[in-house]
Amino acid sequence: MGDIHDERRDALEAAHRHALEWLGSVAERPVRPEIDVDGVQERLGRDLPAEGLPAREVVDELAAAAGDGLMAMGSPRFFGFVIGGAYPAALGADWLVSAWDQNNGSRQTTPAVAAVEEVAASWLLELLGLPAESGVGFVTGGTMANFSCVIAARDAVLRAKGFDIATGGLQAAPRVRFLAGDQVHTSMVLAGRLAGLGPPQTVGADDQGRIDLDGLERALAEDPDAATIVALQAGDVHSGAFDDFVRAIEVAHAAGAWVHVDGAFGLWAAASPRFAHLVRGLAGADSWATDAHKTLNVPYDCGVAIVRDEAAMTAALGAHAAYLPAVASISDPYDRTPELSRRARGVTVWAALRSLGRSGVRRLVEGLADAASALADGFRAIPGLEVLNDVVFTQVCLAARDDETTAALGEWLRAEGTIWASSSTWRGRTVVRFAVSNFATDAEAVRRTVDAVGRGLAAVTAR
Questions:
Q1: 3-class secondary structure, 306
Q2: Most Cβ neighbours (<10 Å): which of 16, 66, 86, 305?
Q3: pLDDT digits (tens, 9 = 90+) for 367-391
Q4: CA–CA separation, 249 and 167 (whole Å)
Q5: pLDDT for residue 38
Q6: Cα–Cα dist 266/235, whole Å
Q7: Which residues carry this modification: N6-(pyridoxal phosphate)lysine (predicted)?
Q8: Cα–Cα distance between 404 and 399 in angstroms, integer?
Q9: Domain map of the chain by residue range?
Q10: CA torsion sign, 207 to 208 to 209 to 214?
């Protein structure tokens, strides 16, 4: 056993050294990767070696081969795909989660991590103003959080119509209508497909992506007796806009529909009184999904599925077998996710919340929004640029005088390396989208970003 202990120690010491080197470089290195997939594979070697290596050498070889192919997603100037950084406490907890190696399925077999996740879940519900009795499952990300909630919703609305999908199966089930606004996120579309519902029927949206309430009401009235799920958004991926939850939920519930809220990054607005107007009525929904590795800044991966009726959640997602330990009156972690086997990812949520406290989460959320507003102000001051969205939260969509120039600006910025922002199409125009998600995005990061955009515009218009 001494040899195994030494090898583990050597591997972890090497990983610690390489991790600190990487983290120390992130703030100043080019955000873009320096080499592509083929370049990393050339360094790794594509043929499986006949003989192995000691653990330390494996870690060293991995770090040397992969380092130049890493995207500096933890950079305060990374604005792509709504990806946050990692708070130190959450990162440290994540390392412990790997070392503990607990398969967090059962409260009986993994009491420590199950307890930590349950505390984290109760803190989340309190922080976000959601019903305390809700079921909470820690999944991989927003897509699986949406999927988990849609599965619970699907089964519940069918059960309300007298059909038990657990015994009857989906092929024999009545049709379930799935409604959403025109700007529904692709993860919500995928959740519908995976749940066997197909993509949602869209009912319209306003110019910021908020669901069209009149369109929703008309769609609901078309078949008032149908089993129906309505998907709303807390934070449009382009504009950051929030649906009118008060009216939308009222209309949907009057028609007997289940209301789900996709709040991958925007659900966290509920942690700040400053954004209470954006989330008014949010707690009246039936389920909610979010990502902790976005706004909360915990390491990948950690999505959160929340269902008001925990019994509906466990009926849809729960696992049952003679060999699985269970207490009839208390749900287990594997009853609230689609997985039997998983890492204890909710421990990082506990660590982030314990590190920040209620006031720290509020400052985090408000700081991200402030940085987005500062970016928008800086961009508007550059002649030839336009901010297309109403900057209400953490998203900024930037456009130049024409689509060709905007596309060239995005490519220049990603190649130059000071920042990294995604290109997209919104409201019929090409945009460069800035999603502010990293707790480290401060005034200096904003200044450098605005400067880079100004230099990029000058470069592409001079061609």
A1: strand
A2: 305
A3: 999 999 999 999 999 999 999 999 9
A4: 30
A5: 97
A6: 5
A7: 294
A8: 10
A9: 2-72, 92-352, 358-461
A10: negative
Rounded Cα–Cα distance for residues 408 and 262 (Å): 32
Please state, in angstroms and as integers, the Cα–Cα distance from residue 43 to each residue in 14, 37, 50, 58, 61, following that order.
19, 10, 17, 13, 9
Strands 227-233 and 176-180: parallel
User: Does the reported pTM lie above 0.90?
Assistant: yes
Give the three-state DSSP class for 176.
Answer: strand
User: 139 has which bridge partners?
Assistant: 303
- Residue 382 corresponds to which amino acid? I
The tokens for 230 are 């309505």
Number of neighbouring beta carbons within 10 Å of residue 141: 21
| Helices 443-461, 403-416: inter-axial angle, 10-degree rounding | 120
Q: How far apart are CA 137 and CA 384, in angstroms?
A: 46
Q: In DSSP terms, which residues pair with 205 in a beta bridge? A: 211
Task: Write out the two tokens for 279.
Answer: 């989330």
Q: Which CATH class is domain 92-352?
A: alpha beta
CATH topology of domain 358-461: Aspartate Aminotransferase, domain 1 (3.90.1150)
Confidence of residue 321 (pLDDT cuts 50, 70, 90): confident
Please give the Cα distance from 125 to 132 (Å, whole number): 6
